[in-house]
Amino acid sequence: MKAEAISMLPAFVKCSSEMLILWDNTYCDRLWCCMEMSLFLKKGDLSKLHVVPVWLAPWLLCTMFLDWFCARLTLPIVFFLWSGGQGGDLATDSRWGIVAVCVQLWGLLLLAYLPALLPALVSFVAKIEQHQAMLKQLQAFDIRCAKCSVEEDRTLLEAIVAREYDGIDDAPISVDLSADEFSTSLADPASRLLPAEAEVLRDDAVRRLTSYPGVEECLEIFNAQVRNQLFSELRRDLGQPQTLNPKP
Questions:
Q1: Distances (CA, A) of 173 to 4, 176, 191, 194
Q2: Do the beta carbons of residue 101 and residue 82 sit within 8 Å?
Q3: Helices (H), 15-69
Q4: Does 220 score more than 90 pLDDT?
Q5: Do residues 214 and 221 make contact, with C-beta atoms less than 8 angstroms apart?
Q6: CA-CA distances (angstroms) from residue 118 to 66, 77, 131, 134, 234?
Q7: Helices 231-238 and 95-139, interaxial angle, to 10°?
Q8: Which of 35, 51, 183, 221 stands the most exposed, by the fewest C-beta atoms within 10 Å?
Q9: Considering the chain, what percentage of its residues have pLDDT values greater than 90?
Q10: Are 56 and 22 in contact (CB under 8 A)?
Q11: What is the C-alpha to C-alpha distance for residues 19 and 48, in angstroms, rounded to an integer?
């Protein structure tokens, strides 16, 4: 019963138009998560796969709150005290007087934002570290290193991933040899293998006689897709670790 329920997951995921991943440092270590990600990646449309790191929201909220705090509280107080000390007269006749006023204003801005400087620095450093860790995890991704809470399920879950990437269920590619220029195209979907025929090809003894990849090769194909395509898409979407504002 459990194996039958797990085998229905690919059909469920394939019916999903989009996928949202809440990424944390343990995501790549969870075999179930990796399996679900592989099912959606096989669809090929990475633009529908949305990765939101769990550190992104706290970092943005912290940055926005500190900016609001300084703009609404410390900045008005500092300017009020300064303008009171100037007697409300900011005019000056000399060029050096104007320079002095500008320097004072910049100094006041720095003083007003000083309470937020240290927390913002700590928050940004943490953001860089988490961002770098996420990209390093993708570059070194290997589904075979993922952990499974019930180790007996590992073989079944890896088999599901391998089944998606073995190419047996894909439509065959036809090549027109009679044309002046060779052209390739997907053959009629009706020419796909029947389920019974596909299962025969998935038998280890039969598969070794064909060009279809084995289970380990299929897992490595998925690993390569994560390390290259997903890594590039995520880096393009979120930017480099030192990026202040993520792409909307």
A1: 31, 10, 10, 16
A2: no
A3: 31-41, 56-69
A4: yes
A5: no
A6: 10, 20, 20, 24, 29
A7: 160
A8: 183
A9: 11
A10: no
A11: 6
Distance CA 16, CA 43 (A): 10
Domain limits, the chain? 2-54+137-238, 58-125
With residues binned 3-state (H G I as helix, E B as strand, rest as coil), the percentages for the chain, rounded to 5, are: 65, 5, 30
d(CA 195, CA 102): 77
Burial 109-145, CB ≥16 within 10 A → b, else e: eeebbeebeeebeebeeebeebbeebbebbeebebee
Separation of alpha carbons 167 and 151, rounded Å = 27
What pTM was computed for the model?
0.69
180-205: pLDDT as tens digits: 554 444 444 445 555 666 666 666 66
Amino acid 228: pLDDT: 92
For residues 237 and 246, give the distance between their C-alpha atoms in angstroms, rounded to a whole number: 8
Q: What is the pLDDT of residue 182?
A: 46
Tell me the C-alpha distance between 112 and 80, whole Å.
11
